[in-house]
Structures are given as C-alpha cells and as structure tokens.
Amino acid sequence: MQRCGSSDIWTRRETAIADRPKNPVCVRRRSGRFACRWTRVVMRDRARYALHRIEKAYSGWRGGRGLALPEFLGIGAQKCGTTWLHENLARHPDLFLPAGKELHYFDWHFRRPLRWYCAQFAPGAGKVRGEITPNYCTLAADRIAFIRRIMPEVRLIFLMRNPVERAWSQAVMNLAEKTGRSSDEVPDEEFHEHFHDHRSILRGAYLDNLDRWLRFFPEHQLYCGFFESIVERPRSLLEDILRFLGVSLDVDWNLFPAHRVVRKGVDAAMPQRHRVVLEQLYREDIQQLHQRFGDPVARWRVR
After folding, report:
1. pLDDT-derived band of residue 276, with 50, 70 and 90 as boundaries?
2. Same domain for 36 and 82?
3. Distance between CA atoms of 107 and 249, rounded to whole angstroms?
4. Are 103 and 120 spatial neighbours (Cβ–Cβ below 8 Å)?
5. What is the pLDDT of residues 108-129, one digit of tens each?
6. Which residues, in sequence order, are CB contacts of 93 under 8 Å at separation 6+?
7. Are residues 121 and 32 in the same domain?
8. Domain count, the chain
9. Are 106 and 91 in contact (CB under 8 A)?
10. In which domain, by residue range, is 83 found?
11. Do residues 202 and 218 lie in contact, with contact meaning Cβ atoms separated by under 8 Å?
12. What is the rounded (10 degree) CA torsion for 182, 103, 262, 183?
C-alpha cells in the first residue's frame, strides 16, 4: 500500500479507497488540491478485505456482546442429513432457526454487514438461536477465527456420511436433478469429473475440515453425528443433539419428523462402476476416519 507524505490516506478515507480495490483512486481535499495523485489498492483476495472491514466495524463489541448472534451452527456436511436436522430442530419450542435453511453468511454473503446476519435471528429472542449451512465446514481458517471471536461459546454440529455415498448423492443432485435428467442419462465422464472436482473432495474431507475448526474451538463445543443414525435411530440421535444444545427433551415427539429421512431430489442407486472409482478416491480417508471414530464408521471401510 502506498502512502503520500505524512497523510494517512488509508486511515482517513478507507471506505472510498477500499470500495475500488483494483483500480487507481484519486482523493481530493475540500480545497481542491490533491492529497495524493494516485493510491492503488491491490487486494489479491477480496474475502480478506471483507474480513478486515467487518472486524473493524464490530471491533468494539467483544465476543459479539449485545448482538442477536446464533448460539449454535450446523456446519455440515452437505448431503449428510442437514435438511433432516433443520426440519426437526425448527419444531422444538425452545429453539429458533430462520425459516430459510442455509443463510450462507460466512461464505457467500460475508460482504454484507453483520447487522444483516443478526437481523435473521431477532425474531428468536428468548430462545436458543441457530442456523444450519453445511458449507460452513469448508470455511478457511480466517473465517473460523472470526466466528470464534464474535461467538466464542457457539456450539457446532457436524453430520457425516460415508464419503463415497455423499459424493454420489451430490453428483446426482448437481448433474441429474438440476439438469432435468435421470442419472442414467448422465455420461460417465461427467460423473467422474464431478467426483474429482476440488469442491466435492473438500466437502468430503471430514477430518481436514474438523481439524481446521478444532484449531479454534474446543472439542466440547463440537458434536459429531452420522447419517446412518438418522436412518437407524433417528429419535436417539435427535435427543443427543438436543442435550448438546441444552434444551428440554420433554416435548411432544409427534410434532417431530424424526423418523422421516428428508431427501431432496433424485434418489438413485449407485452403479458399481462409479462405486469403484469413489472407493478408490476415498479409501485412505475412510481408513483414517475409522481410526478416529471407530464403530460408527466401521461399515464404511473399503475392502
């Protein structure tokens, strides 16, 4: 960053300059003289600027005190039962979740003011507030550090599924459902390209994602659940999550769709030729997951 003379252009005119991060900016004094002919602000990563802007704007509120921030986050993973989780938690009288699942504030909408995010939780005053955006598990370390600073006590829920099944479900959603085709109409080459896409692999890299979050949050603030439990013991899983969130289990369970696995889109069986590709891709990950979690993921192991 260039400075002109003794004047700190960045400090006094931060907004005017930063709003044009990749263009020359000319700042004129009231007298008509140029404070500096050219000040070029090069921002390689606009997300870093957004982080700087929000931190600066809200640095006076330590830990997010006084803000209507959520007390829990469902951080992932995609295609692992987060819709089921949202549908059930939203029915609990002591919990509040925004009507629209996946606010995506900390990834897609991070340039919006923090007050916009807080406004989504304002109707939930007096309740335990939270939201579920499964893509949060892939957030970069600086975003997670920011969440830790403004919500140091937030509880995190992370659902996992056999990464082979997760990758297939995501591919079917993206390549079949969203394009109006059946899975049989999608060429194998498209599936294989999707399997190896870095975004799909990142969402299935559970251990990398968990370890990145655990760099900033203690383990007792993180709950890990498994998709298979939604199918086999949904009420038990839901009770565990409610205990983790610190809310009552004395509720009318008839109001909860706990025994209904919420699946969006196409539910297509995975052909063996695709399973072979995915098992090879995730073999090492599954072995490491088994070493860490034991029995809950034993059935995922690839022979």
Report:
1. very high
2. no
3. 33
4. yes
5. 999 999 999 999 999 999 999 9
6. 251
7. no
8. 2
9. no
10. 70-300
11. no
12. 10
